[in-house]
């Protein structure tokens, strides 16, 4: 896979390029009938050697409202994602003795992505790579729209009188995308009705509808962000602030790491040939799928 690049274009004259994207994360929270409600985030992480300087400077709006523009994330081969009318929400800009880095958050305003006026997001992905059969056989295969393929991981949290929480993790490729499905569902909501769909998992079929779904969190990560933990199923089940569950709270470098960067001249690069990983965490209504048999 080629190196990812990104570009944010605001108005006719402002253009910020990110030529060394070592990681991105798309993170959303969706509620039936209500949609994303602005809980749609895109994160970028890029770094360069300490003796260099970024060609394009990230400038945050000096006004009370953030800059709005079009963000493109691409590997210039198989993946091109376009997010029109998205806000540049914040940037964490810094350096160690080894590298200069930028962590940038883009976020959709609720009124630009709600079910009455969904943004024209383009998630073009032509990656053909799929996992091969492993020791799990077909027990942990899944299917949304296309042919069944193996999961990278599965986890569930089942408890009496509590909402069941089901998490699927998979390679992101041209088929069976949870992110694409949820974006499509958000666009297709009519009135107070959500279009239902199914997730086939082994010998179980999950019927997902506005009658049994409380909410769903979907995350697609590459590079640096695949090492940033997701909320535990217990945290998701407890609910709390939906925004904070969907939003990335990346930790700063530990003092030990800063000292280690003082003793190296070359930054450790993240594996740019690594796959994209997608995780979908469904929270169903209490009382549904409590008879789930996991072997």
List the helices and strands and how they pair.
Elements: E1 4-10, E2 14-30, E3 40-49, E4 67-74, E5 79-95, E6 99-107, E7 122-125, E8 141-143, E9 149-150, E10 153-157, E11 165-171, H1 178-188, E12 197-201, E13 204-208, E14 213-223, H2 233-238, H3 242-246, H4 255-262, E15 277-284
Antiparallel strand pairs: 1-2, 1-4, 2-3, 2-14, 3-6, 4-5, 5-6, 5-7, 8-9, 8-12, 10-11, 11-15, 12-13, 14-15
Short description:
By secondary structure, the protein is mostly beta strands. The protein has helices at residues 178-188, 233-238, 242-246, 255-262, and strands spanning 4-10, 14-30, 40-49, 67-74, 79-95, 99-107, 122-125, 141-143, 149-150, 153-157, 165-171, 197-201, 204-208, 213-223, 277-284. It has one domain (4-284).
What topology, given as strand order, has the largest sheet? 1-2-3-6-5-4
Structural class: mainly beta
Q: What does the radius of gyration come to?
A: 20 Å
In percent, how helical is the residue content? 10-25%
Q: What is the mean predicted local confidence, pLDDT?
A: 90
**Secondary structure tally: strands:** 15
Low-confidence stretches: none
Cα separation of the termini: 35 Å
Write up what this structure looks like:
The protein has four helices and 15 strands. Helices cover 10% and strands 40% of the residues. A hairpin with a 4-residue loop joins strand 4 and strand 5. The mean pLDDT is 90. The strands form two sheets. Strands 1-2-3-6-5-4 form a six-stranded antiparallel barrel. A four-stranded antiparallel sheet has the order 9-8-12-13, with no helix packed on it. The protein has one domain (4-284). The two termini are 35 Å apart. By secondary structure, the protein is mainly β.
